[in-house]
Automatic annotation (TrEMBL):
Xref: PANTHER family: GLUCOSAMINE-6-PHOSPHATE ISOMERASE (PTHR11280), GLUCOSAMINE-6-PHOSPHATE ISOMERASE NAGB (PTHR11280:SF6)
InterPro entries for the chain: Glc/Gal-6P_isomerase, Glucosamine6P_isomerase, NagB/RpiA_transferase-like
One Gene Ontology biological process: carbohydrate metabolic process
CDD domains: GlcN6P_deaminase
Domain of life: Bacteria
Domain Glucosamine/galactosamine-6-phosphate isomerase, residue spans: 26-243
Pfam families in the record: Glucosamine_iso (PF01182)
Species: Persicitalea jodogahamensis
Protein name according to UniProt: Glucosamine-6-phosphate deaminase
GO cellular component: cytoplasm
Underlying gene: nagB
Length: 270
């Protein structure tokens, strides 16, 4: 990975570090650099690093930068992904596991990848299987995004639970989440978007040691605004990042909107 200086505007909201970059490529590059540095730091004291990855077009620039990082010790990285549609063929381009395989896992010599099976005959058993893997390999890093309705993974407001007793669960998708898949160009029409999915729960994400959240684009401006300014609550699930001891949010000017600097944020709150 090429090390360079990025022009970022930085501020904090509670514990959440916010970095606003000049454009999407720089946003993805700085996020990848930050994750890479954290992986290398962790490998100084442990043999493997366990990472959960998000699957969405918003992650394209970040994943491209990670895939180009040929000097990283990928053979010491175990990977998980945070959600999967129920009933979608595993090789469908919209499958979250297939997306990550295409964008990253097939391009680097990664140690091990654990896939969620959205076609498992017993979704409950599949949730338990994946939860056991997460418990066996405690998460070091989560690379995530935010949905248009402030969901993280598929923890939409109606299903979000900051104290969820489970690590993985089956959920019915919020209409806005399904509409987002059309907005993102993943499906041609709403009727083709699955209505349910398997998702890692909020505790499964927030118990990770480090969170890196990549959120570009004008379709996420409102969600970013809510994340930074609304009270921490399940109505805006992404707000929970403000309580995490090591979380960084990477934005571009479009997603940052009027919250591009700390002073503008405080002006909007007051």
């Amino acid at each position: 990975m090429t090390f360079k200086m990025y022009s970022a505007r930085s501020f904090e909201v509670e514990n959440l570090q916010v970095e606003v970059l000049e454009n999407r490529p720089e946003m993805g590059a700085l996020a990848a650099l930050s994750v890479t540095q954290k992986i290398r730091e962790l490998l100084l004291t442990q043999e493997k690093v366990n990472i959960i990855f998000a699957s969405a077009p918003s992650q394209n620039e970040f994943l491209a930068a990670m895939a180009a990082n040929v000097n990283l010790e990928w053979n010491k990285v175990r990977a998980f992904h945070m959600d999967e549609y129920i009933g979608l063929p595993s090789d469908a381009p919209q499958s979250f596991g297939e997306y990550l395989r295409e964008k990253l896992f097939s391009k680097v010599p990664i140690n091990e990848v654990f896939y969620l099976d959205g076609n498992a005959p017993d979704p409950g058993a599949e949730c338990r299987r994946y939860a056991e893997l997460l418990a066996k390999y405690p998460t070091d890093i989560v690379c995530m995004g935010i949905g248009e309705n402030c969901h993280i993974a598929f923890n939409d407001p109606h299903a979000a639970d900051f104290d969820d007793p489970d690590l993985v669960k089956e959920v019915k998708l919020d209409l806005r989440s399904r509409e987002q898949q059309v907005h993102d160009g993943c499906f041609p029409s709403l009727d083709q978007v699955p209505v349910s999915a398997l998702t890692l729960t909020i505790p499964a994400l927030t118990r990770a040691r480090h969170l890196f959240c990549v959120v570009p684009g004008s379709t996420k401006t409102v969600a970013v605004s809510h994340t930074l300014s609304e009270p921490v609550s399940k109505e805006f699930p992404a707000t929970i990042m403000r309580r995490h001891p090591s979380a960084t949010l990477f934005l571009d000017p479009e997603s940052a909107g009027k919250f591009s600097t700390r002073s503008q944020l405080f002006q909007s709150l007051n």
